[in-house]
Design goal:
242 residues; alpha/beta; Rossmann fold; five-stranded parallel beta sheet; two-stranded antiparallel ribbon; 8 helices; 7 strands; globular; hydrolase activity, acting on carbon-nitrogen (but not peptide) bonds, in linear amides
Length: 242
């Protein structure tokens, strides 16, 4: 499918209730601190409001976003990004003890091998301990190495635990419209997050190192583009069957 057609198909997926999208306990895999809010902020808030807060695992430390900053070396940035993630999920109603930081290196999450297997087993134990029945991972078409690695982690956890797997797009929304993609017509659902849109926007705004001008001494550092925020902070979130 062409990207423009795929995007239109995603926006046209049927709206389903939370009970159909996340019928039990939920494990959300976020490649970086901020992806939990960008891709699943509404879902997290809805689950919390329903009295069954999800478990959120943040895969990488996010410390590679501003590699040339002298004021924010990796250890300081790593701690900052963890704080931002805690503040963000608090906006969604999630307690800090439902947040797990796995500490993989930003931009170098493994796609296979012993470390991948170790992390997958750790996630499987977390899912089992917390009684999770559905795992949410980034969409396989997201054009970022850590998002792809986290999608593979989601598949591994699914296979280890027999969980249901759904994917959420983040960077995939910005694929050029004319790009031809190896993807069939998508199957999935949309969650109406109108009631939680403001909370999601607040959660995203907590990630000030990525959006908000906190770091000023690395002009080439990462900054969440307005086009991505416009695509993601809307009245719905999309979840795709693998």
């Amino acid at each position: 499918m062409m990207a423009a057609d795929l995007h239109a198909a995603l926006r046209g997926l049927p709206v389903a209730p939370l009970a159909a999208i996340a019928p039990g306990a939920v494990l959300v895999l976020a490649p970086h601190p901020d992806d939990e809010s960008l891709g699943c902020g509404g879902l997290i808030a809805a689950c919390c409001a329903a009295g069954r807060p999800p478990l959120v695992a943040i895969m990488t430390d996010g410390a590679a976003s501003h590699p040339h900053s002298r004021q924010w070396p990796a250890p300081r940035l790593r701690a900052r990004r963890q704080r931002e993630a805690r503040d963000a999920v608090a906006c969604l109603g999630l307690a800090p003890d439902r947040l797990a930081f796995l500490g993989l290196p930003d931009a170098a999450a493994p796609h296979d091998g012993p470390v991948f297997a170790h992390i997958a087993a750790r996630l499987a134990r977390l899912a089992t301990t917390h009684g999770c029945t559905t795992v949410f991972a980034p969409w396989r078409m997201d054009p970022h190495c850590d998002h792809e690695a986290t999608w593979k982690m989601g598949m591994a956890v699914r296979d280890l635990c027999g969980l249901r797997l759904l994917a959420y797009p983040v960077w995939g929304w910005l694929l050029p419209p004319g790009r031809d993609l190896d993807h069939p017509p998508p199957r999935g659902m949309r969650l109406d997050i109108t009631a939680h849109r403001a909370a999601k926007a607040r959660a995203v705004s907590m990630h000030q190192s990525q959006y908000g001008g906190l770091i000023t001494d690395d002009p080439d550092g990462f900054h969440l583009p307005d086009s991505l925020l416009a695509a993601l902070v809307t009245d719905f979130e999309v979840f795709v069957h693998p």
